[in-house]
Amino acid sequence: MTTRGGPVGTAGAPRTLDVDHRFDRGWVDNAVRLIDADATRSADTHLLRYPLPEWSRWDTDEGSTGISLYLKDESTHITGSLKHRLARSLFLYALCNGWILKGTTVIEASSGSTAVSEAYFAQLIGVPFIAVMPRTTSPAKVALIERRGGRCHFVDRSDEVYSEAQRLADETGGHFIDQFTMAERATDWRGNNNIAESIFTQLAQEEFPVPTWVVVGAGTGGTSATIGRFIRYRRHDTWLCVVDPENSAFFPAYRDGDPDAGSDVGSRIEGIGRPRVEPSFISQVIDRMMSVPDDASIATARRASETLGRRVGGSTGTNLWGALRLIAEMRAQRRAGSVVTLLCDGGDRYSGTYYNDEWLAGKGLDLGRAEGMLDEFFTTGEWSE
Asked: Which residue ranges does the record assign to the Tryptophan synthase beta chain-like PALP domain (predicted)?
Protein backbone atom coordinates (compact mmCIF):
# COMPACT_ATOMS: atom_id res chain seq x y z
CA MET A 1 0.00 0.00 0.00
CA THR A 2 1.42 3.42 -0.96
CA THR A 3 0.37 7.03 -0.70
CA ARG A 4 1.76 10.21 -2.27
CA GLY A 5 3.86 10.55 0.84
CA GLY A 6 5.62 7.27 0.10
CA PRO A 7 5.43 3.76 1.55
CA VAL A 8 3.40 3.26 4.71
CA GLY A 9 3.16 0.48 7.22
CA THR A 10 0.12 -1.68 7.85
CA ALA A 11 -1.17 0.85 10.37
CA GLY A 12 -0.98 3.61 7.78
CA ALA A 13 1.92 5.42 9.46
CA PRO A 14 4.65 6.71 7.11
CA ARG A 15 7.68 4.41 7.05
CA THR A 16 11.12 5.95 6.41
CA LEU A 17 13.43 4.12 4.00
CA ASP A 18 17.10 4.93 4.57
CA VAL A 19 20.15 3.06 3.32
CA ASP A 20 23.40 4.64 4.52
CA HIS A 21 26.51 3.44 2.68
CA ARG A 22 28.86 6.00 4.11
CA PHE A 23 32.22 4.70 5.21
CA ASP A 24 35.53 6.14 6.28
CA ARG A 25 37.01 7.48 3.04
CA GLY A 26 40.37 8.10 4.64
CA TRP A 27 42.05 5.17 2.88
CA VAL A 28 40.67 6.10 -0.54
CA ASP A 29 41.59 9.77 -0.02
CA ASN A 30 45.15 8.77 0.81
CA ALA A 31 45.36 6.39 -2.18
CA VAL A 32 44.33 9.20 -4.54
CA ARG A 33 46.86 11.50 -2.86
CA LEU A 34 49.64 8.95 -3.35
CA ILE A 35 48.87 8.66 -7.06
CA ASP A 36 48.63 12.43 -7.52
CA ALA A 37 51.89 12.91 -5.62
CA ASP A 38 53.56 10.35 -7.86
CA ALA A 39 52.39 12.27 -10.95
CA THR A 40 53.62 15.55 -9.47
CA ARG A 41 57.09 14.06 -8.98
CA SER A 42 57.20 12.95 -12.61
CA ALA A 43 58.19 15.21 -15.49
CA ASP A 44 56.44 14.93 -18.85
CA THR A 45 57.92 12.56 -21.42
CA HIS A 46 60.21 13.86 -24.18
CA LEU A 47 59.23 14.61 -27.76
CA LEU A 48 62.20 13.46 -29.83
CA ARG A 49 63.05 14.84 -33.27
CA TYR A 50 63.69 11.76 -35.44
CA PRO A 51 66.35 12.37 -38.09
CA LEU A 52 65.28 12.21 -41.73
CA PRO A 53 67.57 12.37 -44.81
CA GLU A 54 68.19 15.52 -46.84
CA TRP A 55 65.36 14.70 -49.25
CA SER A 56 62.92 15.65 -46.44
CA ARG A 57 63.75 19.34 -47.07
CA TRP A 58 63.20 21.37 -50.24
CA ASP A 59 63.22 24.99 -51.38
CA THR A 60 60.18 27.05 -52.32
CA ASP A 61 59.64 30.66 -53.32
CA GLU A 62 59.03 31.43 -49.64
CA GLY A 63 62.16 29.62 -48.47
CA SER A 64 63.17 26.20 -47.22
CA THR A 65 60.50 23.83 -45.95
CA GLY A 66 59.95 20.10 -45.57
CA ILE A 67 58.77 17.32 -43.30
CA SER A 68 59.57 16.69 -39.65
CA LEU A 69 59.10 13.45 -37.71
CA TYR A 70 58.73 13.24 -33.93
CA LEU A 71 58.59 10.39 -31.45
CA LYS A 72 56.75 10.92 -28.17
CA ASP A 73 59.04 8.91 -25.89
CA GLU A 74 56.74 7.15 -23.44
CA SER A 75 59.51 4.76 -22.38
CA THR A 76 60.77 7.41 -19.94
CA HIS A 77 57.86 6.86 -17.55
CA ILE A 78 58.95 5.22 -14.31
CA THR A 79 57.34 1.93 -15.41
CA GLY A 80 58.87 2.22 -18.87
CA SER A 81 55.95 2.50 -21.27
CA LEU A 82 52.96 4.39 -22.65
CA LYS A 83 50.74 2.26 -20.39
CA HIS A 84 51.88 4.20 -17.33
CA ARG A 85 49.43 6.97 -18.26
CA LEU A 86 46.60 4.48 -18.74
CA ALA A 87 47.30 2.64 -15.49
CA ARG A 88 47.27 5.90 -13.52
CA SER A 89 43.94 6.89 -15.08
CA LEU A 90 42.41 3.45 -14.52
CA PHE A 91 43.36 3.40 -10.84
CA LEU A 92 42.06 6.92 -10.23
CA TYR A 93 38.84 6.08 -12.08
CA ALA A 94 38.29 2.93 -10.04
CA LEU A 95 39.15 4.61 -6.73
CA CYS A 96 36.85 7.57 -7.37
CA ASN A 97 34.04 5.24 -8.44
CA GLY A 98 34.37 3.29 -5.19
CA TRP A 99 35.48 0.10 -6.92
CA ILE A 100 38.85 -0.19 -5.16
CA LEU A 101 38.89 -0.05 -1.37
CA LYS A 102 41.44 -1.04 1.23
CA GLY A 103 42.47 -4.64 0.63
CA THR A 104 40.72 -4.98 -2.74
CA THR A 105 42.51 -7.37 -5.08
CA VAL A 106 42.93 -5.72 -8.49
CA ILE A 107 42.88 -8.04 -11.50
CA GLU A 108 43.79 -7.13 -15.06
CA ALA A 109 43.79 -8.88 -18.43
CA SER A 110 47.03 -7.79 -20.06
CA SER A 111 49.75 -8.93 -22.43
CA GLY A 112 52.34 -7.19 -20.34
CA SER A 113 53.03 -3.45 -20.31
CA THR A 114 49.71 -2.37 -18.80
CA ALA A 115 50.14 -4.97 -16.09
CA VAL A 116 53.68 -3.75 -15.37
CA SER A 117 52.37 -0.23 -14.80
CA GLU A 118 49.32 -1.38 -12.84
CA ALA A 119 51.49 -3.51 -10.57
CA TYR A 120 53.40 -0.33 -9.77
CA PHE A 121 50.27 1.59 -8.76
CA ALA A 122 48.87 -1.37 -6.83
CA GLN A 123 52.09 -1.53 -4.83
CA LEU A 124 52.02 2.25 -4.37
CA ILE A 125 48.60 2.19 -2.68
CA GLY A 126 49.08 -1.20 -1.01
CA VAL A 127 46.59 -3.52 -2.69
CA PRO A 128 47.15 -7.03 -4.16
CA PHE A 129 47.47 -7.30 -7.95
CA ILE A 130 47.00 -10.22 -10.35
CA ALA A 131 47.80 -10.04 -14.07
CA VAL A 132 46.03 -12.52 -16.35
CA MET A 133 48.13 -12.98 -19.50
CA PRO A 134 48.99 -15.43 -22.29
CA ARG A 135 51.84 -17.84 -21.60
CA THR A 136 53.69 -16.32 -24.55
CA THR A 137 54.23 -13.00 -22.72
CA SER A 138 57.92 -12.12 -22.60
CA PRO A 139 59.72 -13.35 -19.43
CA ALA A 140 61.16 -9.86 -18.95
CA LYS A 141 57.67 -8.40 -18.53
CA VAL A 142 56.67 -11.17 -16.14
CA ALA A 143 59.74 -10.38 -14.04
CA LEU A 144 58.85 -6.67 -13.98
CA ILE A 145 55.33 -7.42 -12.72
CA GLU A 146 56.58 -9.77 -10.03
CA ARG A 147 59.25 -7.29 -8.99
CA ARG A 148 56.43 -4.85 -8.16
CA GLY A 149 54.71 -7.46 -6.01
CA GLY A 150 52.19 -8.55 -8.64
CA ARG A 151 51.22 -12.13 -9.40
CA CYS A 152 51.01 -13.50 -12.95
CA HIS A 153 48.22 -15.89 -13.87
CA PHE A 154 48.67 -17.53 -17.28
CA VAL A 155 46.19 -18.74 -19.89
CA ASP A 156 46.83 -20.74 -23.04
CA ARG A 157 44.85 -18.57 -25.48
CA SER A 158 44.89 -14.79 -25.70
CA ASP A 159 41.09 -14.65 -25.97
CA GLU A 160 40.75 -16.38 -22.57
CA VAL A 161 42.17 -13.46 -20.58
CA TYR A 162 38.84 -11.64 -20.23
CA SER A 163 36.74 -14.44 -18.77
CA GLU A 164 39.57 -15.66 -16.55
CA ALA A 165 40.15 -12.18 -15.14
CA GLN A 166 36.45 -11.86 -14.32
CA ARG A 167 36.45 -15.35 -12.76
CA LEU A 168 39.34 -14.40 -10.50
CA ALA A 169 37.62 -11.16 -9.52
CA ASP A 170 34.48 -13.08 -8.58
CA GLU A 171 36.52 -15.69 -6.70
CA THR A 172 38.54 -13.17 -4.68
CA GLY A 173 35.86 -10.53 -4.27
CA GLY A 174 38.27 -8.24 -6.13
CA HIS A 175 37.95 -5.73 -8.95
CA PHE A 176 38.56 -6.50 -12.62
CA ILE A 177 39.96 -3.12 -13.67
CA ASP A 178 39.38 -4.00 -17.37
CA GLN A 179 41.60 -1.75 -19.48
CA PHE A 180 39.88 -2.85 -22.67
CA THR A 181 36.53 -1.42 -21.60
CA MET A 182 37.61 1.47 -19.38
CA ALA A 183 40.54 2.93 -21.34
CA GLU A 184 38.50 5.36 -23.44
CA ARG A 185 36.46 6.65 -20.51
CA ALA A 186 39.04 6.76 -17.71
CA THR A 187 41.18 9.43 -19.42
CA ASP A 188 39.94 13.01 -19.71
CA TRP A 189 40.31 13.54 -23.47
CA ARG A 190 39.64 17.29 -23.23
CA GLY A 191 42.92 17.99 -21.47
CA ASN A 192 44.26 17.50 -17.94
CA ASN A 193 47.74 16.62 -19.22
CA ASN A 194 46.65 13.69 -21.34
CA ILE A 195 49.02 12.52 -24.06
CA ALA A 196 47.27 14.51 -26.81
CA GLU A 197 47.50 17.80 -24.92
CA SER A 198 51.14 17.05 -24.13
CA ILE A 199 52.02 16.46 -27.79
CA PHE A 200 50.45 19.68 -29.02
CA THR A 201 51.97 21.71 -26.17
CA GLN A 202 55.45 20.38 -26.91
CA LEU A 203 55.09 21.15 -30.62
CA ALA A 204 54.13 24.78 -30.00
CA GLN A 205 57.57 26.22 -30.87
CA GLU A 206 58.33 23.86 -33.75
CA GLU A 207 58.26 24.69 -37.46
CA PHE A 208 54.93 22.87 -37.82
CA PRO A 209 53.18 23.18 -34.45
CA VAL A 210 50.02 21.46 -35.68
CA PRO A 211 51.00 18.05 -37.09
CA THR A 212 49.60 16.79 -40.37
CA TRP A 213 49.36 13.26 -38.95
CA VAL A 214 49.44 11.59 -35.56
CA VAL A 215 50.11 7.85 -35.79
CA VAL A 216 49.29 5.41 -32.97
CA GLY A 217 48.76 1.69 -32.58
CA ALA A 218 45.55 -0.07 -31.64
CA GLY A 219 45.87 -1.86 -28.31
CA THR A 220 43.00 -1.07 -26.00
CA GLY A 221 41.80 1.71 -28.28
CA GLY A 222 42.13 4.21 -25.45
CA THR A 223 45.04 6.22 -26.88
CA SER A 224 43.47 6.61 -30.31
CA ALA A 225 40.15 7.59 -28.70
CA THR A 226 41.85 10.21 -26.51
CA ILE A 227 43.87 11.73 -29.36
CA GLY A 228 41.04 11.59 -31.91
CA ARG A 229 38.60 13.29 -29.55
CA PHE A 230 41.15 15.93 -28.54
CA ILE A 231 41.88 16.80 -32.19
CA ARG A 232 38.19 17.40 -32.82
CA TYR A 233 37.62 19.22 -29.54
CA ARG A 234 40.47 21.65 -30.24
CA ARG A 235 39.55 21.82 -33.97
CA HIS A 236 43.09 21.02 -35.11
CA ASP A 237 43.82 20.45 -38.79
CA THR A 238 45.34 17.06 -38.00
CA TRP A 239 44.53 13.54 -39.20
CA LEU A 240 44.70 10.45 -36.99
CA CYS A 241 46.13 7.25 -38.46
CA VAL A 242 45.90 4.01 -36.47
CA VAL A 243 48.29 1.18 -37.34
CA ASP A 244 47.44 -2.41 -36.51
CA PRO A 245 49.65 -5.51 -36.63
CA GLU A 246 48.71 -8.58 -38.62
CA ASN A 247 46.33 -11.09 -37.00
CA SER A 248 44.51 -8.31 -35.14
CA ALA A 249 40.75 -7.74 -35.29
CA PHE A 250 40.85 -3.93 -35.39
CA PHE A 251 41.90 -3.40 -39.01
CA PRO A 252 39.39 -5.77 -40.65
CA ALA A 253 36.66 -4.34 -38.40
CA TYR A 254 37.50 -0.80 -39.58
CA ARG A 255 37.88 -1.82 -43.23
CA ASP A 256 34.66 -3.81 -43.39
CA GLY A 257 32.58 -1.85 -40.87
CA ASP A 258 32.19 -5.04 -38.84
CA PRO A 259 32.40 -4.51 -35.06
CA ASP A 260 32.14 -8.27 -34.52
CA ALA A 261 35.33 -9.05 -36.43
CA GLY A 262 37.67 -11.43 -34.65
CA SER A 263 40.94 -13.29 -35.00
CA ASP A 264 41.84 -16.76 -33.81
CA VAL A 265 45.58 -16.02 -34.05
CA GLY A 266 47.27 -13.97 -31.34
CA SER A 267 49.34 -10.90 -32.17
CA ARG A 268 53.12 -11.29 -32.08
CA ILE A 269 53.55 -7.56 -31.43
CA GLU A 270 53.02 -7.28 -27.69
CA GLY A 271 50.91 -4.40 -26.44
CA ILE A 272 48.92 -3.90 -29.64
CA GLY A 273 46.69 -6.10 -31.74
CA ARG A 274 43.70 -7.91 -30.21
CA PRO A 275 41.67 -11.04 -31.05
CA ARG A 276 38.44 -9.01 -30.79
CA VAL A 277 37.33 -5.40 -31.21
CA GLU A 278 37.65 -3.96 -27.72
CA PRO A 279 34.92 -1.73 -26.24
CA SER A 280 37.37 1.20 -26.00
CA PHE A 281 38.02 1.20 -29.75
CA ILE A 282 36.15 4.25 -31.10
CA SER A 283 36.45 3.86 -34.88
CA GLN A 284 34.59 7.08 -35.66
CA VAL A 285 37.48 9.30 -34.47
CA ILE A 286 40.00 7.52 -36.73
CA ASP A 287 40.73 8.99 -40.16
CA ARG A 288 42.79 6.16 -41.59
CA MET A 289 44.01 2.68 -40.66
CA MET A 290 46.93 0.60 -41.88
CA SER A 291 47.68 -3.07 -41.35
CA VAL A 292 51.41 -3.60 -40.74
CA PRO A 293 53.08 -7.00 -41.24
CA ASP A 294 55.00 -8.31 -38.24
CA ASP A 295 58.27 -8.51 -40.16
CA ALA A 296 57.89 -4.79 -40.96
CA SER A 297 57.20 -3.90 -37.33
CA ILE A 298 60.27 -5.76 -36.10
CA ALA A 299 62.59 -4.58 -38.88
CA THR A 300 61.57 -0.96 -38.23
CA ALA A 301 62.03 -1.35 -34.48
CA ARG A 302 65.55 -2.62 -35.10
CA ARG A 303 66.28 0.23 -37.53
CA ALA A 304 65.01 2.80 -35.02
CA SER A 305 67.16 1.23 -32.32
CA GLU A 306 70.25 1.73 -34.47
CA THR A 307 69.28 5.34 -35.15
CA LEU A 308 68.45 6.23 -31.54
CA GLY A 309 71.28 4.24 -29.96
CA ARG A 310 68.92 2.25 -27.72
CA ARG A 311 66.40 -0.50 -28.26
CA VAL A 312 62.71 0.16 -28.77
CA GLY A 313 59.79 -2.26 -28.62
CA GLY A 314 57.92 -3.88 -31.49
CA SER A 315 54.89 -1.60 -31.23
CA THR A 316 57.16 1.39 -31.80
CA GLY A 317 58.26 -0.32 -35.02
CA THR A 318 54.62 -0.68 -36.07
CA ASN A 319 53.98 3.01 -35.39
CA LEU A 320 57.11 4.15 -37.18
CA TRP A 321 56.43 2.00 -40.26
CA GLY A 322 53.08 3.76 -40.66
CA ALA A 323 54.64 7.18 -40.08
CA LEU A 324 57.35 6.59 -42.70
CA ARG A 325 54.77 5.52 -45.26
CA LEU A 326 52.80 8.73 -44.65
CA ILE A 327 55.97 10.80 -44.94
CA ALA A 328 56.68 9.23 -48.35
CA GLU A 329 53.17 10.23 -49.46
CA MET A 330 53.63 13.78 -48.17
CA ARG A 331 56.97 14.09 -49.98
CA ALA A 332 55.44 12.82 -53.23
CA GLN A 333 52.68 15.43 -52.87
CA ARG A 334 55.23 18.12 -51.95
CA ARG A 335 53.24 18.69 -48.78
CA ALA A 336 55.23 20.16 -45.90
CA GLY A 337 54.31 19.38 -42.32
CA SER A 338 55.04 17.21 -39.32
CA VAL A 339 54.20 13.66 -38.32
CA VAL A 340 54.11 12.49 -34.71
CA THR A 341 54.09 8.94 -33.45
CA LEU A 342 54.81 7.14 -30.18
CA LEU A 343 57.87 5.40 -28.80
CA CYS A 344 55.78 3.08 -26.65
CA ASP A 345 58.38 1.21 -24.61
CA GLY A 346 62.01 0.16 -24.52
CA GLY A 347 63.32 -2.85 -26.38
CA ASP A 348 65.28 -4.50 -23.58
CA ARG A 349 62.06 -6.29 -22.58
CA TYR A 350 62.21 -8.06 -25.95
CA SER A 351 65.84 -9.15 -26.04
CA GLY A 352 64.70 -12.78 -26.20
CA THR A 353 62.17 -12.19 -28.97
CA TYR A 354 62.36 -9.30 -31.47
CA TYR A 355 66.13 -8.94 -31.05
CA ASN A 356 66.81 -12.67 -31.10
CA ASP A 357 67.44 -14.15 -34.57
CA GLU A 358 66.69 -17.68 -33.36
CA TRP A 359 63.27 -16.57 -32.10
CA LEU A 360 62.55 -14.90 -35.44
CA ALA A 361 63.52 -18.05 -37.34
CA GLY A 362 61.32 -20.14 -35.07
CA LYS A 363 58.38 -17.88 -35.89
CA GLY A 364 59.12 -18.03 -39.61
CA LEU A 365 59.92 -14.33 -39.78
CA ASP A 366 62.34 -13.08 -42.45
CA LEU A 367 63.12 -9.37 -42.20
CA GLY A 368 64.82 -9.07 -45.58
CA ARG A 369 61.89 -7.67 -47.56
CA ALA A 370 61.04 -5.04 -44.95
CA GLU A 371 64.69 -4.07 -44.51
CA GLY A 372 64.96 -3.54 -48.26
CA MET A 373 61.92 -1.25 -48.24
CA LEU A 374 63.39 0.76 -45.38
CA ASP A 375 66.71 1.07 -47.23
CA GLU A 376 64.92 2.41 -50.30
CA PHE A 377 62.83 4.85 -48.26
CA PHE A 378 65.75 6.35 -46.36
CA THR A 379 67.80 6.59 -49.57
CA THR A 380 65.19 8.02 -51.96
CA GLY A 381 62.17 9.06 -49.87
CA GLU A 382 60.01 6.77 -52.00
CA TRP A 383 57.77 3.95 -50.81
CA SER A 384 57.14 0.78 -52.79
CA GLU A 385 55.12 -2.14 -51.45
From this structure: 64-345
